[in-house]
Specification:
About 35% of the residues lie in helices and about 20% in strands. Residues about 240-260 have low confidence and may be disordered. Strands 9-8-11-10-12-13-14 form a 7-stranded mixed beta sheet, sandwiched between helices. The protein has 23 helices and 30 strands.
């Protein structure tokens, strides 16, 4: 990966162009505290934003460490070429009209290719991006207002959307942002490279990614591995769940958003915490910055109101969070601190008897913080500072500090409403090692995410799809698909193939009844009358075949002792790899929409984990006295599909087994589909 250190932490900055955006870059750089030389480049102007200008790149006193290129797209290519030749440290390409506009501008892709050729090994951000803000070293290569401040340590945030980046700088939640980086089109430097550069800074505690599309899957996987090694968690907000969002993504940054199932599987595999809103994105980053990942979701809640205690408990029902019952040690210590009138529970309503009493509140909070808990939450909404006196709320903060010191456990202040925890208070709390969480829903979502366990080991590099998955395709017959899968370990029913109804009846005598007859060549056999079940004699088979709109037939022994039916499917997702789906099969597939997705290659532990998260898991385990399905044959069936895909990765477009009938002794693929790319 490229060295971005000169670009991200420059000693000198060049600003090429003379428009308002370029003037803003100079003003924002100075306002943010940059003290090195800033060299405007303009062919006719003597000064730009008060700084002496230079006629061209060759006239600069030295090769700039960082450059902002604020000219049109064709001129951008020329400027980048000159900067690279001069030995510059890197550049931000502000102009749009490149690959993201290829539908409107026929030469957009060609101009972007020319830009990459011009840059060579010199790093470039974008094109079609604002640039970046470095709050650690007071560097702003940024053409607009922003809300960033200097910090000594904090989180790094990377986004492809400059406007979302701008919005994130305006947050008032007390989150210290060390780096705010925009990637634009990711034409050269992508999210993974930016992430690696940010994580390498020991002042960065966690990484937040707003993802429209992932460029190089291998580099993204390397980023996740590096983050795990460094102990710096990653949080991601991945857009593209809706068709409208996917269309906007392509037009916006020329990224391929890919399927939601694929991106979810990718993030889960890599141990990246996925969020679905910007507010939770900020809250979980804040929590991870102060405490790091939580060892569990076992927490304590403390408030001076029964209503708040109940609200906390009710809100937590929607999240994977546990409020453990109080043990004897906690009860004894709480009774000593609170006296006999308070009902002791978790969540705790400690009433207002001790309000304003620092020692009593500290003792109460410390008593709640059992060694088995990962976090304490004090529910506290601050009064308006323009109308009210908040002095007693400061006593609560002091008591929390005392409790943290006494218990050695992290404690958060959770406001029930986001607006009742001000920015000034939040900043001060972070500096004191107290987590300020704004709003119950976002707070509990952040706690749930922070407590997610990271994968201990990955089952090998992601199997990447080939670029040749285009053109004509063919679908194997059911018999051909089953035969192909059986060679890789899949159990299939004993069967015979026939080219006529009479032959089907005759050959069926070699099989054990009851039998299933299928007319081949149909994706949905039951809908066209090409499926007959529970046939007992060869005559039954012949008669059933005569009623089917088919020319070829498959006769199979039926599986009679099924416990549950599953689906195993694999599709090629160009943005994320080969997506393996495990779910409820047969007639339940569409009714329940009960699926879990993984990326290939996977392993037995991940497959078992997926099976355990299905809604129909109780059926697999034996529901209400019914027989349980034997788990290992199911896992073996999934691995057989995976083995077929990895052995044919240059051709496979789609594989589906539905249903896989799971019995107390085996798992049998009774229907299968394989779609392959035609080889020319």
């Amino acid at each position: 990966m490229r060295d971005l250190s000169r670009l991200l932490r420059p000693n000198s900055i060049a600003v090429i162009g003379g428009g308002a955006w370029c003037e803003n870059v100079i003003r924002e750089a100075r306002a943010f505290g940059f003290r090195g030389p800033i060299w405007p480049v303009h062919p006719t102007r003597a000064t730009v934003a008060g700084e002496p200008a230079f006629a061209d790149i060759s006239a600069l006193p030295d090769a700039p460490d960082a450059s902002f290129v604020g000219v049109n797209r064709h001129a951008t290519v020329e400027i980048i070429s000159a900067l690279a030749a001069r030995g510059a440290g890197g550049a931000v390409c502000f102009a749009s009209g490149f690959l993201e506009a290829s539908e409107e501008l026929s030469d957009g892709g060609a101009v972007q290719d020319a830009l990459l050729d011009a840059a060579g090994e010199m790093p470039i951000f974008g094109p079609n991006c604002y640039g970046f803000l470095n709050g650690l070293d007071e560097v702003a290569i940024w053409p607009d207002q922003h809300g960033m401040v200097k910090v000594n340590r904090g989180v790094a945030i990377i986004t492809q959307s400059s406007n979302i980046a701008l919005n994130l700088t305006m947050q008032k939640r007390g989150l210290p942002i060390a780096y705010l980086l925009t990637a634009g089109n990711q034409a050269q430097v992508d999210l993974a490279e930016l992430g690696m550069a940010a994580l390498a800074d020991n002042r960065v505690t966690a990484l937040g990614l707003h993802i429209e599309g992932i460029g190089d899957l291998g580099r993204f996987e390397a980023l996740a591995n590096a983050a795990r090694t460094l102990g710096k968690p990653i949080v991601a907000l991945k857009i593209g769940a809706s068709q409208q969002a996917r269309a906007a993504t392509v037009s916006h940054t020329a990224s391929l958003a890919g399927s939601t199932a694929g991106s979810d599987a990718l993030l889960a595999r890599l141990g990246i915490r996925k969020v679905t809103s910007l507010s939770v994105f900020l809250e979980v980053l804040k929590l991870l910055h102060v405490t790091g990942p939580l060892p569990s979701a076992r927490i304590a809640s403390m408030s001076c109101s029964g209503g708040e205690a109940s609200l906390m408990a009710d809100t937590a029902v929607r999240f994977d969070i546990e409020f453990p019952a109080l043990n004897a040690s906690q009860t004894d210590a709480l009774r000593h601190a609170l006296g006999p009138k308070v009902a002791l529970a978790n969540p705790l309503d400690y009433h207002t008897y001790i309000w304003g009493d620092r020692a009593a509140m500290a003792a109460t909070f410390a008593a709640m913080m059992d060694a088995s808990l990962s976090l304490g939450c004090v529910v506290l909404d601050f009064p308006r500072d323009d109308r009210c006196d908040a002095s007693l709320w400061g006593v609560v903060i002091d008591s929390i500090k005392d409790a943290i010191a006494a218990s050695g456990k992290p404690i958060a202040i959770v406001s029930s409403l986001p607006e009742t925890l001000s920015e000034d208070v939040a900043i001060a709390l972070v500096q004191d090692g107290i987590v300020p969480l704004c709003g119950l829903d976002d707070a509990l979502s952040a706690i749930e995410l922070a407590a997610q366990s990271d994968p201990t080991a990955l089952p090998g590099p992601i199997l990447l799809p080939s670029a040749i998955h285009e053109g004509q395709s063919k679908v194997l017959t059911e018999g051909e698909a089953k035969e192909a899968l059986s060679r890789h370990g899949m159990i299939v029913p004993k069967s015979v193939s026939a080219s006529s109804g009479a032959e089907a009846g005759q050959l069926s005598r070699t099989l054990r009844a009851p039998l299933a007859l299928k007319g081949e060549g149909f994706a949905h056999k039951s809908e066209v009358g090409a499926l007959a079940l529970n046939l007992c004699t060869s005559q039954d088979v012949t008669i059933a075949a005569s009623k089917m709109p088919a020319e070829r037939f498959l006769v199979e022994e039926m599986v009679e002792d099924g416990v549950v039916e599953l689906l195993i499917g694999v599709v090629v997702d160009p943005a994320h790899g080969f997506v393996l789906t495990i779910g409820a099969g047969g007639t339940w597939t569409e009714l329940l929409s009960d699926t879990q997705c993984l990326l290939i290659p996977t392993d037995q532990d991940a497959i078992n984990g997926a099976l355990d998260h299905l809604k129909i898991t109780p059926l697999l385990r034996g529901y209400r006295g019914a027989s349980a399905a034997h788990r290992q044959p199911i896992v073996n069936g999934v691995l057989a599909v995976q083995d077929y895909v990895t052995s044919n990765a240059d051709r496979v477009l789609e594989v589906e087994v539905n249903p896989l009938i799971c019995t107390p002794t085996r798992a049998v693929a009774v229907d299968a589909l394989i779609r392959l790319r035609e080889i020319e």
